[in-house]
Write a structure and sequence with these properties.
seven-stranded mixed β-sheet; two-stranded antiparallel sheet; alpha+beta; 2 domains; 266 residues
Amino acid sequence: MLTIGAITLNWKITLEIIILWFVIYRIMLFFQGTRALQVLRGIIILVFAFFIVQILRLETLDWLLTHLFGISIIGFLIIFQPEIRQGLARLGQHNVFIPVIPEKEVDAMLGEIVKAVEILSKQKVGALIALEKEESLKEYVETGVPIDSKVSAELLQTIFTPNSLLHDGGIVIQQGRVVAAGCLFPLTGKQDLSRVFGTRHRAAIGLAEQTDAVIVTVSEETGDISMCHGGRLTRDMSTDDLFENFKSYFKPKKNDKSVRINRRKS
């Protein structure tokens, strides 16, 4: 028969496990799309191995894992300083109160983007479009020219017209509106990218590494359409694939007819 003390202890252990798993999950999200993620997974495996060894009281393995774990943590902190700084910087970018947009309006907005991208792709006009989700893109909005206009295919085509002042930068879409154009996005620091990736692709990957934004690019050389999220780039997409991927990122929860998109900041 369980005593009150045993029930209290079990409740505390359960709570600790839930908190631990949540912390691990959030840490892995911070490093998603970076080279640090694979190393972090290895360290997590070492931690679980260490706990098993402690339970079984295997003294030799305990001594080995204790020293190996300490060295791994120090090495991780030294080697992956840039990724750690990026992860910490993203802590304050989430907004607690996120308004919702009706699903029909989101479908219309995404449809206009896809329509513009299709035309730009056929004309081989370069484009870089970032859609904000939960993490704020305010610092990148401030690097561009304010617009604050409803999303339309015509507007996007005009912005990316060759030789225009805003052509070479990216645009940011917040809460269904184009809020800025000619924005500067951070370039990825990855050194193993193919030479076929130009500045727009590197900027898309860089922004996706540091935020949860969904970024679309159109290649000026080939007209290829790409989408980037979480530091991962999907190339050579059709417009149908593009729209379906959009829907997967911005679709509402079950029985919810609205989509959460970050509040625009003044």
